[in-house]
Specification:
Helix content is 2%, strand content 39%. The protein contains two helices and 50 strands. The chain is elongated, with a radius of gyration of 41 Å.
Length: 692
């Protein structure tokens, strides 16, 4: 350094540039001529072109005599040790990096990591030495130029580092091979750490050029997302298919770092023909190429089988298919890992299916990628993704009102509206149009109401015992207005299927348990014909225990079918379903039940309902506290069980669904009310496919 003791002239990122001829070029920019081994003067390593000791630390376009033609501090000046009368024509030349403490053979990147606090300073008056290994072709002899590139801005501004990258560490995973013209390939697999001093930014674009790649590779947004790094550097992972391998020897690649908004002009206006070209940094590496194939990566293939995207509707099972993935290596067994939420982490669980054909349930909106990583067990992998666009509505464990107990549910057949009775006496309506996700209050009944039901047109009735004896029983219009003396159920309005025609009192019955007292008798109000107040349309329970009798203290649910049968569900100590004739007082068997967890027995039954085909469903809680829906035909033959702690997350309470055809299309939905004060209250909807 020519100014000993004058620290205001400390230099930074000093580079000693070796300049010769350039017989090679880069697709990146046709103005770039670079030296080629065997043809031009070139810096090599001590072990040849790929050796690290003495090899160039990078390549730069600065100060080449072909473009920076004005002598002086901002142009090329012929050095005292340069070959007299010789001017190299390369516009891209190799350099060695100089800084205090950097040894003659040290690795630049490791030095920068260990000495970042010194900012790559070349102290005024100090001397630095680096090894160069130079190769001169016989045809040209020892002819060369050189230049010194030093960063300095002002006597008061220190440090003043280069704006472009001055160091690159390329970690190469060997993968490229050449056997013959028909057997070659692999990928240039790189982890690139690019050193840019803060506050200067990392590259805005990066490129890979190589003689084993048919065209320049531009790093995409995924490649340009750092996988690691530090304050002054970022690490990028990139894999470039080697589609042009022509042999084992002489293969190499370039790493090009580009900086949008920066160029080769200067504030002092000294001209050069590089001028407004975008500033870039260049690094070249030898590429080892094997004579035998490496393990080849699998080829990932991913499709969505169903449903068609975009999808809008109920929570849905999406079926993915990666079974078309292949591996070119005979005998490799493929393994599949999934990322269903696009967070970059693989290994997400799926709900059913197989590793290569998983089924994942989406019960909320999701727009993004679903990706699978296919590996071959030998280090090879490939990742592919599909676009998923889902607007989904939950079918299980839908949150209801907080801070208040939910007691019963009813479905309005004509509209699909769902009514839920709460312990504060409010009845809320949840609509099919909103997929039952949120609701609003329809009317207030009474906080003593325990049970409710709705007619086909939306009229409803609520009931329950009074604390001082007797019962509460009240009806409401579909609008939520109170209906005195049950007048809401006149005419055809309270019919389970269509309406009860004159003289057809045995047809299309609807039966619900209200525990409304009439006189001194607890009663079932069974509307098998247009009712009038006072229970004229219902039948009383004449209590008893055992087969053929019903005790209202044990009764938890009643359901009528379209064949004039009524099913009465009793819990402890009876534990049974008893089928009765429409007159209700006459038994018409069969009955089934008994204590126990396994079907057809009940452990702690909560409610009973049916579907349009007169299949009976009983909501039960097992001794394990697990909920279950038990299914029977009209004579009590077990047909299966449904539900678990995933779909019914808390204490089972009530079930309803016999009257609803989703969208009028003939698909039964089954609604389960469950919860408790500690966990909250929820609605779970079972789809037709779950009930078959």
């Amino acid at each position: 350094h020519p100014f000993p003791g004058m620290s205001e002239y400390d230099g930074y990122d000093v580079r000693g540039i070796f300049i010769g001829d350039g017989s090679g070029g880069l697709a990146y920019n046709s103005d770039l001529d670079c030296p080629e081994l065997g043809t031009d003067q070139i810096i090599v390593g001590s072990e040849g072109p790929g050796g690290t000791d003495g090899a160039p630390d990078g390549y730069t376009r600065w100060w080449n005599p072909s473009e920076f033609t004005s002598p002086g501090i901002l142009g090329y000046t012929h050095g005292a040790f340069a070959t007299p009368g010789y001017t190299g024509d390369a516009t891209l030349n190799g350099y060695k990096y100089f800084a205090d403490g950097l040894g003659m053979t040290n690795d630049v990147f490791e030095f920068l990591l260990a000495n970042a606090g010194d900012s790559g300073v070349f102290t005024a008056g100090s001397t630095n030495r680096r090894n160069y290994y130079l190769r001169f072709p016989n045809t040209k002899g020892v002819t060369f130029n050189y230049a010194i590139c030093a960063n300095w801005e002002d006597e008061l501004i220190h440090p003043s580092n280069a704006q472009e990258a001055i160091g690159c560490r390329a970690s190469i995973t060997p993968d490229v091979y050449y056997v013959d013209a028909t057997s070659n390939g692999g990928k240039i697999k790189l982890d690139l750490s690019i050193w840019n001093w803060e506050p200067h930014s990392q590259p805005t674009a990066m490129y890979i050029e190589s003689n084993v790649v048919s065209s320049m590779y531009t790093l995409d947004s995924t490649d340009m997302t750092p996988t690691g790094g530090g304050v002054n550097y970022s690490t990028y992972h990139v894999e470039v298919p080697a589609d042009n391998v022509g042999g084992i020897e002489g293969n190499n690649f370039w790493v090009i770092c580009e900086y949008d908004g920066l160029d080769y002009t200067n504030d002092m206006g000294v001209p050069n023909t590089a001028n407004t070209d975008m500033l870039a940094a260049f690094f070249r590496y030898d590429l080892f190429t094997a004579a035998t194939p490496y393990n080849l990566d699998p080829d990932c293939d991913l499709q969505i089988i169903s449903p068609t995207m975009p999808y809008s509707g109920w929570a849905v099972d999406v079926e993915f298919d990666a079974s078309g993935s292949t591996d070119p290596d005979v005998g490799d067994v493929l393994q599949f890992e999934w990322d269903f939420d696009d967070d970059g982490n693989f290994g997400d669980p799926y709900d059913s299916g197989t590793d290569d054909k998983p089924i994942k349930n989406f019960d909320s909106d999701y727009v993004g990628n679903v990706c699978v990583k296919v590996t071959d067990g030998n280090g090879g992998e490939d990742i592919c993704c599909v676009d998923v666009d889902i607007t989904a509505y939950a079918t299980k464990n839908i949150d209801l009102r907080s801070g208040v107990d939910a007691r019963d549910i009813a479905v309005v057949k004509n509209t699909g509206d769902l009514y839920i009775l709460y312990s504060d006496g409010q009845v809320w309506k949840y609509t099919e149009a909103n997929y039952y996700q949120t609701g609003s209050m329809l009317y207030y009944s009474s906080n003593v109401a325990l049970f409710m039901d709705a007619s086909a047109n939306g009229d409803s009735i609520v009931s329950g015992p009074l604390s001082g004896g007797g019962s509460y029983c009240r009806s409401f219009y579909a609008s939520g207005g109170a209906a005195a003396n049950h007048t809401a159920f006149k005419g055809p309005d309270w019919s389970s299927e269509v309406w009860c025609p004159t003289g057809g009192y045995q047809i299309n019955k609807h039966c619900s348990w209200y525990d409304c007292s009439y006189g001194s008798y607890p009663s079932i109000v069974w509307f098998w014909q247009p009712p009038t107040y006072g229970g004229a349309g219902g039948n009383f329970i004449y209590e008893g225990s055992g087969t053929g009798s019903i005790n209202h203290n044990y009764l938890v649910g009643v359901e009528a079918d379209t064949n004039s049968y009524v099913y009465c569900l009793e819990k402890a100590p009876e534990y049974r379903v008893e089928r009765r004739w429409y007159w209700f007082t006459s038994q018409n068997g069969p009955y089934w039940g008994g204590f126990g967890d396994t079907s057809p027995n009940f452990n702690d039954p909560r409610d009973i309902t049916r579907d349009t085909g007169n299949t009976i469903y009983v909501l039960d809680e097992l001794s394990t506290t697990d909920p279950v829906i038990k299914k029977f035909n009209s004579t009590g033959t077990p047909l299966g069980t449904y539900g678990d702690t995933t779909s019914i997350s808390s204490t089972p309470l009530r079930i309803e669904g016999s009257e609803r055809l989703w969208g009028g299309a003939g698909d039964n939905l089954m609604f389960v009310l469950h919860g408790n004060a500690a966990d909250g209250y929820f609605l779970s909807i079972f789809m037709p496919s779950e009930l078959t």
